[in-house]
Amino acid sequence: MTALLAAAGHAVFGDSLVGLRALALASGAGVVVLSTLMASDLGGGRRAQITAAIVAGLTPFVLAENTLFQPVSFDLLVSALLLWLALRLTLAPSRRLWIAIGITVGVGLETKYTVGVLAVALLIGFAVSRRDVLRVPDVALAAAIALALFVPNLIWQAQHDWASIRFFLHPGASATDESRPQLVDQVSSVVASAHPSAVIAENYGEAGALELYGRGLPAVVSGHMSFRYWRPAALASRAVVVVGYDRARLAELCSRYSIVRRAVLPYDVDNEEQGAPIATCTLRGDLDAVWPQLVRPKL
């Protein structure tokens, strides 16, 4: 779901980072509105509603998570919506609300799996204190709707060796996205003189930035996390530009290589790209031969 929202944001705002993050800010605004509605439904007057809105809007977690475009931003909105629907259910149980809960959970699971934990917690809470709202046909209908919406995700996971579960068990290193347009410019200058068949990026953040901001670049390849699933079938030649690989990994990957420059990012940004090698490389084999080295896990 986050990827679809990103695609929609890109279609509307183009390469504008402000436009992309506006979607996350709108999600945060939705959390504020839902908090106000919950205060109202609980009997709070105007003062209570304003207080709820201010507290929700100024909560450090909401402020931090909704200033970047990321799954957590929309997970917060889905969770707030689910809580509001659950509250409405306790006030006036109806099949319509259970249908809305099923849709919310299903869409939420396409955004982040954590909404499933909240759904289970709410069911346990209802079972303990409000069994009257747990009408079996309605709960079953909501569960069926949520599962139907979640099935495409399960199919993709099954087809890709349950990638999310493997990442949960063996998380990769985090990466920031600050100043990556400058990194792209520096990589592009090396590409212009080397004429490679591809650019191989060490992590998905670099690869994504090269795809988004790069102009006239060859295929961008990375074996990091889910970016591996967009690898090309083959490369036109073994001549590539490699970004972010240290000398030891370059020696494993390339029959010969040359570090042309190192990334220099502004504002003293301290991230994985600062000082990252940008090298020309002749691969030791075709893409199929070297691919296992590109996708080995980073623990």
- Beta percentage is 5-15%
Lateral arrangement of strands in the main beta sheet: 2-1-3-5-4
Mean pLDDT: 89
SSE pattern: HHHHHHHHHHEHEEHEEH
Distance between the termini: 27 Å
Q: Mind telling me the C-alpha Rg?
A: 24 Å
Number of domains: 2
Low-confidence stretches: none
Tell the overall outline: elongated
| Share in helix | 55-70%
Structural class: alpha/beta
What does this structure look like?
This protein has 299 residues and is an alpha/beta fold. The protein has 2 domains: 2-159, no CATH class; 180-294, no CATH class. The protein is 61% helix and 9% strand. The chain has helices at residues 2-13, 17-41, 46-58, 60-65, 71-91, 95-111, 114-129, 136-159, 163-169, 180-194, 204-213, 247-253, 287-294, and strands at 198-201, 219-221, 239-243, 254-262, 277-283. It has a 5-stranded mixed sheet with strand order 2-1-3-5-4. Helix 2 packs antiparallel against helix 3. The longest helix has 25 residues, at 17-41. The chain is elongated, with a radius of gyration of 24 Å. The chain starts with a helix and ends in a 5-residue tail after the last helix.
Q: In terms of topology, how is this protein built?
A:
Blueprint: H1 2-13, H2 17-41, H3 46-58, H4 60-65, H5 71-91, H6 95-111, H7 114-129, H8 136-159, H9 163-169, H10 180-194, E1 198-201, H11 204-213, E2 219-221, E3 239-243, H12 247-253, E4 254-262, E5 277-283, H13 287-294
Parallel strand pairs: 1-2, 1-3
Antiparallel strand pairs: 3-5, 4-5
Helix pairs in contact: 1-2, 2-3, 2-5, 5-6, 5-7, 6-8, 10-11
